[in-house]
Every structure is written in C-alpha cells, then in structure tokens.
Amino acid sequence: MAVARLASPTSVSASGDDWVIDYEKTGDGGWCGTGGCTKELWVSREGRHILVFSEQVLDWRLTPGAPAVLDIDIHGVNCGATGSEPCLRRLVWNEARGRLDEAFNREGSGYLVGPLFQPIEPEPYPEAVATEIDRRMALCRQANGLVDAGEYPAVTSPDLNGDGRRDWIVGSPYTRCHSALDETIAMPALGVTVLVSVGDRWVTALNVQNPNYAVELRPSGPAEFGLRDENLCQDKPACPTRFYAWEPVTQTLRDSGEGHWHPRLIANSETWLDCLAAAKAVARRHATDWTDADLRLFAAHETETLKIYRRRYEESVPGLTRSAAGEREAVFASRYDEPQEQEAADWRSDRCVALP
C-alpha cells in the first residue's frame, strides 16, 4: 500500500513539515485493538523527521499552534481503570526537548497512573537507569527467578524535583520476579525506584516495594510522585494516593504526609459539562427508586445543583464553541447511559460537589 494513503500533513514543528501516519487506513486489523488503532507522528527536526508518537489511540485530536497540542483517548488501563472507562491525555510539543510532554488533559486532570504512558519507546536509557534495570535482573536471577518486564522496564517521568529536566521511574505493577517452576515460591519484590537528575548526575531518590504509583502534575512547580493504595482503589482513577516531596538536602523524595482520594482537577468548561451529565444520570436513577416525598426533596436539590453546574460552565474561560460543546455533551452523556455505568455517575457527581 502506498505510504501516501496512510499519511496526512500537519504542523507541529517550526517548519510545519510534519506528518501523521494512520495505520487504520491499511484495513489490517493487526494495527488495531481494544485501545484503538495505531497512529504515528513524525516531526521535522534538524533536517530530518523523527518519530515522536507511536501508539494505539481511541481518539486523536492534533491542534497546530505554538506549541501544538495533542489530545488523545487511550485504553482505560492507562488510567488504572477498565477498558470502557475514558482515559484522556494531553501532550504538548516541546520544541527545546524535541518531544511531547504531558499536560493537564482537556477535562482538567493531571493525574497520571503508573506505568506512565509513553508516546514512544523510552530509550536510550541513561547509564544510571540501565544499571538499575540490570541490578533488578541480577537480583531475580540469583533467586532462580524470571522477570516480567511489562511493556517497558523503565519510563521517563515529568520533572519531580523542579530542575526542569525529566526524571526516570524503574519498575511498575507489571514488573515482577516470579519462579519459573512454581508461582507459590516467594521471589524478591522489585518494587519501584525513582531516579532524579541532580546537576550532571542521577540520584536514587526513592526505593519502595509498593509498585502502584502515580505522578500528578501541578499548575506550577514540579510534578509529585505518589503511591496508590490499591486495596482501596476502584476501577477508575479515584484512589487514595500518598505523595512524596523532593528534599534538596538529602536529595530524596520523602513522605509529605499529604494524601487525597480523588485526582485534583483544574475545573474548566469540559469539567462542568461532565458534572452536568453525571448529575443528570444520578437524578434519572433516583426518579425510579425513591418515594414521592423523597423524590420531590431530591429533585429540588438536584435542580439547584444542575443550575450551579450550568452557571459555572457558562462562566468558564476559555469557553467552548457551540459545536464543540454539543459534541462533548454527547460524549459525556454516553458515559452514563447504561445501568452498569451508574457507579461511575455516582462517583463523578460526588466529585463535582467538592470542586471549587
């Protein structure tokens, strides 16, 4: 098949000579799965084209600009949820780094569940990262075990100590040492190691056995590394998370004593549209399972809540165009139009009440 049938021009770099390759157009189902179909983004840089994105996506919206912004919907497992749950990510082109960097997504969330989604394979590894990967392999081999490395043994992370450089996280829930003979035989716990840049070197900022982590972006300053309490997590991003702060003197990530249940949100227009859809879904359910007196009381309360959400949507800056609002309202309504989706509606409606 001619490459021209798969490729379409776009504008990401300063030259604007950039290309999107859509493998869905091949008609070969091998390029597609429950996470959508593979798309690639090739960006012009220093006289050649480099690959900056190659993954399956359910939705793809690339907005040229300075910088260009890529909004994607990927498999829910990347958000610690099920495949049917939305997992929205926003990536912004960083011309200086020559890569796409994570940003708050279109619904205002910067909570990134580990193992962190990587737009391309995260190599080459710095020497310190490669050494840590080798150490883990040797530790497992010494116990006569085998290592399940997951998709990648290490991933690059948003800056965790405020020096403006990306850091590295080795290990994940999918990276473990297991016996080649009997799964009941105890093997070394590999956990997670966080390596942070300090000047021209890398330091081990944190070693923990709990492999269930998240990185949360902040409106300003470095991102935060957190450990998720998987025993209390649900099949959605909501999860108790204990955060760790960078300590410059000891050059470590220390327990900050701060934790919260839900990802923090920077509320925007789309946030309030989702709140409206979730609250309407909750109201529909209660309309059939409450007594008349209770229903009247609840309906009055729900009407006022919906008015608040509508007003906050109308006051949000920047706003959405009428066509964009209609499209997003339809997307949000579809999240809660089946009985089995009621739990998600309850969760999001509760979250919305606490939003500023």
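Second entry:
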Amino acid sequence: MTRSPAKGARLAQALLVAAVASPVLVLLSALAVRGGLVSLETGWSLLTLQVAWWLAWLGGLAALAAVVLALRDLRRLGLYAFAAVLIAGATLAGFVWQKGRLASGPVEHVSTDLAELPGFGDLRARRGGAGPGPAVGAEACPGAQPVMRQVAPQTAGWALEQAGFRVHGFGVQRADGTRTGYWFGVTHDAVVRIRPGRTDIRVAARDGLPHGGEACRLATRISEALRSGR
C-alpha cells in the first residue's frame, strides 16, 4: 500500500527534527553554561561531547532515511531530505573535526619557561587552584617562544589585548589578563613576565578539560605580538 502524502510528510518532518537534534543540543548546552544553569563539565564534556555526539550519528541515519523516503515523492519530500542531509552532514563533519582537535592538541597549560614558571600573582585567587596540570613548552607547542629581550610593560599589555585578553594590570615586571570564550565561557588566564634580556609567557585554562590546544594558540599569538612589537 502506498503511503499517503500526509503521512509521508509527517515522517519526513520527524526525520528532519532528528537530524537537527544534535546542533540544537549543542546550542542549548552553550547557553546553559553561559547562563550558569549547568557547569562547564556538564554542558561541554557530557551534553556536547557525548550526548550530542551520539545524536549526530542518529541524525545521520535519520537523514539517510529521509532520502529513501523522498525517492517515493521527490516533489513533496525532497526539501525535507535535502535539509536533513545538509544539517546532519555538517554536524558530523564539525564533530569529527573538533574531536580530532581535542585528541591532538596539547594540554591547556603552556609556558615558555618550564624551569621557572611565571606566577599568576593576583590571578591565583580567581583561579581557585584549578588548572589542567603540569605545563608544556615549545616541544608540544612550537609557537610558545620567549622573547629574548626586555619588553615595555605597555607592550606586554598590548600583546595580551591582541590575543583577546582583558588586561587586569601591568607593572615593571609583569602584565596579566583573562580571556573568556564566547560559546561555553571557557576561561584562560595569561601572564607575561618581564626580565632583563628575556620575556616569558604562561597561559592556562581554569578547568582541567581539553579544548583542542587553545592555550597553545593563545600563547603563540601573545609571543608573535611581543616579537613584532608596537
């Protein structure tokens, strides 16, 4: 028996909803974390990287089912199938890319001086003792290079701003700042330590979660800005 157009349309709509479920959950998780409704670990590690990941695969299967269904009535159901394939494909591709970054990125704690880490000073109280563990240097993050000269404190503050940090203060020997990501509110702290003949950088996330080497990218931006000067 041929499926009625009304029933076919309702099924196609249901399959499209299944394809959209994963990106919608990611968006709601990000908003919930930013709004303080759930913790970063719940919103990012659980809801996004686990639940939404499996929903993305379910959405892919739903998109394939929508294509099979649309072959029976392409004029009425083709648009649903096209939207489901587009959304599910983009979602899965995004997850695969992000999972690859998380697996390959260094830990979220980078310093250009591993023998004597620059201290976070007043930022220690804001960090609350949290952090992703021991720091890595240029071996894991090639862009985390010290500047082999003494820079001006104003230049250090400017370099932090160039990397997206909000500067809390700077003095003769240091400048520090904080950067909060837009979507999930991930916070990284940075300090630039200034000494005669050498300027060092340290960047660390406040949580112990992987973020695809974001601390490395931020330390690299700061280092490049310091070396280029102003």
